[in-house]
Amino acid sequence: MKKSKPVAIVTGSSRGVGAATVKLLAKNGYNIVVNYSKSESQAREIQAACISLGAETLLCKADVAEDSDCRRMTDDAMGKWGQIDVLVNNAGTTKFNAHGNLEGLSKEDFLHIYSVNLIGPYQMIRAVAPHMKSAGKGVVVNIASLAGVKAIGSSVAYCTSKAALINMTVALARVLGPEIRINAICPGFIQGEWLKAGMGQEKYRKTKDRLESTLPLRLTATPEMIAETIRYFIEDAVLVTGETLLLDGGHHLV
Predict the structure, then answer these.
(1) Phi, psi of 146 (to 5 degrees)
(2) pTM of the entire structure?
(3) Which sequence spans correspond to the domains of the chain?
(4) Which of 30, 114, 122, 158 is catalytic?
(5) Architecture (CATH level 2) of domain 7-190+222-253
(6) For residues 140 and 165, what is the distance between their CA atoms, to the nearest angstrom?
(7) Is 30 a residue of the active site?
């Protein structure tokens, strides 16, 4: 009897870290749920790339801030394959606002950022956990941020949402085992279009150059580097749960 391929849901997988992750997992023999909330054309390109790498795919438009969307995406994956082995909570959002600009963040900004960055992962975990539990195995990787460790980054709402995600990872690791492992990854500066759009081309370039000349490792991350570490947590780190790993070129040291 032919063994079924493992199934991975990666939220926010139409670009950046999410796109790099689904392509790597497809290459490694996974069937993939490609999730997007707005950029359908980009998501279809990533879906096609996964198919070319041998994966069966499911393209799912879903906003993780909406519990009904999280449950529908989970139900669709179960309906297609009958299993969910991996969840990568990658979808995220922010508002670029200087930390000292207290009037620059509204209550609505906080609620939106927390809904996507914290409540979204919780809702996704809640949706998939019963299926992983019944199968006797499952892995969750939450994409947090160095911002959540050092209280830096695009806005106070963003860094505090990521700090809460790190805390939630530990809290849920205590109760989801032994069937489910859950860990968090905290990237620092990630090269790519998302930061360029948020920071502006000039600030992005200057920040990248500064970090690559001052960080202990003189190195900033690419989406592919982050994806490889996600793969490690999924496939190799069988003794690890409730852990937070910083991928920042040593930024946390300075």
Answers:
(1) -55, -30
(2) 0.96
(3) 7-190+222-253
(4) 158
(5) 3-Layer(aba) Sandwich (3.40)
(6) 13
(7) no
